[in-house]
Amino acid sequence: MVLGCFLPPTTAQAQSCTILPKPPDTLLKLAECCAASVQSNPSCRAADPKEGYVILKDNSPRKPQSYLILPTAKVTGIEDPLVLSMPALDLWQRGFAVSATYPGRPPADTALAINSAYARTQNQLHIHISCVRPDVRDKLLTPPVPAYPDKPVALPLPPNQHVYQAVRVSGLGGPLSPFHVIQDDPAARADMAAESIAVMGSAMANEYFVLSTRRDDRNPGSAEELLDQSCN
Known about the structure:
The chain is about 20% helix and about 25% strand. It is of the alpha+beta class. Strands 1, 2, 3, 4, 5, 6, 7, 8, 9 and 10 form a 10-stranded antiparallel β-sheet that branches. A hairpin with a 4-residue loop joins strand 6 and strand 7.
């Protein structure tokens, strides 16, 4: 991740952006910088201050086709009650919309993911945007995945055969936001910090797969594992 912002120091906001952020607040600092100007840092790709989110390039060399969508307001992570409020509530919907450009693949090849509180290094809500692993995509086409609000089906998924609860939805915003959908499970609602979510596109219009997994001794709760961040 490239640190620091390069706005001219002509305003208080610009001056604050010249301070190198320290983990675990790097992403929040970068979000503030990008919201002020997408030219403020090489990681910035797009910003919508009115809607309260920015798009960043993940600069890890292991993730050449990975991007992040995150709110500009402070939202700690998946366990934060603010995920059920705007703008965080609709980040999945907005993330899928921008995935047409970042990384620019068809919906059926696209995936978004958020990790549990136990599998992250940053304390600012962020959703990874990249491609779905082909073996995960193929696995989702095999069983009949029920349509929400029917009960999800349990699926062990590559690469580590962690069990995910899978359900199909017709949208990703408002009451169909994955943050809402997974909380139909009382266990998830009671301990959101242990939850991790992925969303996969479909070849069908207005159809998405919502997948959730829960951290335990054998599972760190990292739905990011379902992504192919090289888009091979």
